[in-house]
Amino acid sequence: MAETERYIQILIESLKKKNEILDTLLALNAKQAEIVRTEDSLDEFDALVDKKAEQIAILDKLDTGFETIYQHVRPEVTQHPERYKEQIKEIQTLITELTDRSVKVETTEKRNKLAIEQYFSKARKDLHESRKSVNVASSYYKSMTNTQYVDPQMINYKQ
Fold it and tell me: pTM of the prediction?
């Protein structure tokens, strides 16, 4: 029984750590949104993507560990739920918080994805307009340099 309580405490700590990581992901998403909104350096945006990847890797490890420990204590907890009533209640509360944060992370990720797609679409459009302007200027330059040149067939040699 003491071993089961220790494992349940590990589950609780794991859920708390997961919530902290999701909070970190929310903060990183907010920074990314700010970068896109202010059109700052995309190098910083990429660095935040790397930090988020690290946090997600930790989250995956915690998920795996949680599942392993849960499978270990599940038989005892399901047979004697009254013994672990308070811990089960705390776990349920933490899972609810975890779910809420996960939804927020997913929502901010979708918002950021849309914002970065709009950013790149605008950048592509600006690039296209720039190329178009360069081509027009180049054509104008070529046509203006050719106005000083008179083709030989236009010269009247019979004067």
Answer: 0.74
